[in-house]
Amino acid sequence: MLQGVAPLDHLGVIRAEGEDAAKFLHGQLTHDFALLDLAHARLCAFLSAKGRMQASFIGFKRSPTEVWLVCQRDLLAATLKRLSMFVLRAKVRLSDASAELRIAGLAGDAINSIAGSAQPMWLKADFGSASVVHLPPAAGQPRALWVAPAAEALPAGAPLDPALWAWGEVHSGVATLSAPLVDAFVPQMLNYESVDGVSFKKGCYPGQEVVARSQFRGAIKRRAYIAHADAPLNVGAEVFSPQDAEQACGTVVQTAAAPGGGWDAIVSLQIVAAEAGDLHAGAPDGPALTLGTLPYPLRDDL
């Protein structure tokens, strides 16, 4: 069962400090940071000018002038460098705060030891020097992200294997971008508009025109799905359908060993291929993929 406290050493933090911190990020990321308060967090992405995801974040304010962006460590240095190119005259300082902080995942009753109870996703609260962000549930269990100074002890709770946490991440249906997949997706290919990772009411940001056109002109041809295979799955592996054995119809985005055997994954697929079925990872005759059910509806009321 998905219960306990898991250290998440694969994640790091970009810190944005200064009176323009939120304003600067508002102009760079897919979600609204101008209206972000101290009680909420944002799922968001940093895009290229062509609307392709360069990184994904869970962002929140530690104070009115300080924002923390949690992301994959393997993307952090390159993302920090690219974001810094756009600072110009903005009163904001960007830095890698990963060495100063530790991050853990809380699942099930472990949330209660610090936060009192589970809360709706993307709510955030501070407990002294620690911050807790409530995440989408997985496998029927509430989950939260805990971020605190490196010297602070982990919250009380049974140890949770990070591999089991990774399986819960897959089953939440909310993908986290990693290095093999930079420049591969517009946000809707990972269902970000359906899990509150994109604001269509905010102003411009890099790639915004592509994202809006994809959404409102019916140009979304790929979606994210949860899949299972009996053999190991690798992030970045192509997915094939016998409808066209020469051309891949999708990509493996995030993987984890399944507690009951085999491997589970988030895969981004052409919608027509997903509907047709008979999917294989890595090669046309590779491991068969069985699609499961997303834990949230795809939104069309934007």
Question: How would you describe this protein?
Answer:
The chain is built from six helices and 16 strands. By secondary structure, it is α+β, with helices and mostly antiparallel strands. It has a six-stranded antiparallel beta barrel with strand order 11-14-13-12-15-16. Strands 1-7-10-9-8 form a five-stranded antiparallel β-sheet. Strands 3-4-5-2-6 form a five-stranded antiparallel β-sheet. Strand 13 and strand 14 (263-270) form a beta hairpin. The chain is globular.
Task: Describe this structure in a few short sentences.
The chain is an alpha+beta fold. 16% of the residues lie in helices and 34% in strands.
The radius of gyration over CA amounts to 19 Å
CATH homolog superfamily of the largest domain: Probable tRNA modification gtpase trme, domain 1
- Structural class category: alpha+beta
CATH class descriptor of the largest domain: Alpha Beta
Give the overall pLDDT as a whole number. 95
Helix content: 10-25%
Task: Write the topology of this structure.
Elements: E1 4-7, E2 11-17, H1 21-26, E3 41-47, E4 53-63, E5 66-72, H2 73-84, E6 93-96, E7 101-107, H3 112-115, E8 124-127, E9 130-138, E10 141-149, H4 162-172, H5 208-216, E11 222-229, E12 238-240, E13 250-257, E14 263-270, H6 271-276, E15 279-281, E16 288-291
Antiparallel strand pairs: 1-7, 2-5, 2-6, 3-4, 4-5, 7-10, 8-9, 9-10, 11-14, 11-16, 12-13, 12-15, 13-14, 15-16
